[in-house]
Amino acid sequence: MNAPWKPAGNALRDPFQAFVCDEHSFDVVRSIAIEMGWPPEKVNKGGLRNAVQSLSVSTSPQILFVDMSESGDPLNDINGLAEVCEPGTVVIAAGQVNDVRLYRDLVASGIQDYLLKPFGPDQLRDAVAQAQAVFLAPRTDAGAERAHLAVAVIGTRGGAGASTIATSLSWMLSDKAKRLTALLDLDVHFGTGALAMDLEPGRGLTDAIDNPSRIDGLFIERAMVRASDKLAILSAEAPISQPMMTDGGAFYQLQEEFRSAFECSVLDLPRAMLIQHPHLMNEVNVAIVVTELTLAAARDSIRILSWLKSNTPQTRVLVVANRVHANALEISRKDFEQSIERKVDIVIPFDTRIASQAAKLGKTFAEVAKGSKVGIACTALMTEVQGAVEESDGAAKPGKGGGSLLGKFDLKAMMPKGKGAKKVAAD
């Protein structure tokens, strides 16, 4: 469905403009505008109808915030706003009606996000970050076919949270970026892709492994479990008494079908599968290496990054430090980065409350984390993933790897006193 506001760049536009009805919203929006470096005078009193009147005689901004709380017919007024907005405006709306049907109708009409009043600075900050990601996303002509974005998520250690990142990214690409997305969970026996979204995995993936010749567009349509209109999952819970006997051909065929049927595919790739079936990385645009800040994870990050550099130089690599507890780090971020000889791209804070709430609600980590620091970090990851495919070289730049890890840390300084840590000479 074509939305009234199709993202498109225009350097002559104001970056932001807002029309709000009440003092609380005015103060919150104005403070975020100042924080973003935008002119505070672009935050105006008056709601949706005032926005229509003003924009009918002026250029619409890149990002528009409109307060709908005084509108008697929101959908009709939104259509009126669409008539005066130029193509490319990304719209954030706010209102007092807590109705999921209204939210869906507004999103279908082209609104990027809808905030329930009263909203706080964190909610607005997150919505603005998502709007910027949409505005800066790759542009295509209306009739042009959208290039497929393939992402592989690889954990350096068990428990690093790679599956959490994979499910969260899948949800964000489908819900926030509005891209038709497939999630393929290749942990055939213990995968949690479907479980994280409170879904039954079905037999689709095990059937594909047993009968690769059956994989075609119709098989994909029937085998995948729908999490939403724009997100489908292929996962499994194969019996642990049943070893997986495959040469990986089925997985490659699934990737081929995904390129035809979806705009994005996210591959939750266990590190053992990376070793057994390296061809799975052949067409991957972005590899996300998920790690914790520990000694063992640093060692394995070096090995995986080195492998990616040698075997998939066309792939853009992002390093995500997950579950980072500021006061309980085994290794500091600085030491970790020195060890892997590259920067950590995204840091996701440790937050047990959000993790437990996501598990209880059967929702992805990113969905529950909206408006928090964790949510902002997840949104930044989505923006990095989308932006990565725009780079002309597309090459992974993981830095050097494979050297002696022990020589890259001062272990004596890192260990508690009295442990008698052995001094190891630096490389």
UniProtKB/TrEMBL annotation:
Q: Which UniProt keywords apply?
A: ATP-binding, Nucleotide-binding
Q: Which GO terms describe its biological process?
A: negative regulation of cell division
Query: What is the top-level taxon of the source organism?
Result: Bacteria
ATP-binding recorded as keyword: yes
Per the record, its GO cellular-component terms are:
cytoplasmic side of plasma membrane; cytosol
Which Gene Ontology MF annotations are present? Answer: ATP binding; ATP hydrolysis activity
Q: InterPro entries, per this entry? A: CheY-like_superfamily (IPR011006), P-loop_NTPase (IPR027417), ParA/MinD_ATPase (IPR050625)
The protein's matches in Gene3D superfamilies, at most eight in alphabetical order, are given as: 3.40.50.2300, P-loop containing nucleotide triphosphate hydrolases
The entry's protein name is: Pilus assembly protein CpaE
**Species whose genome carries this gene:** Sphingobium phenoxybenzoativorans
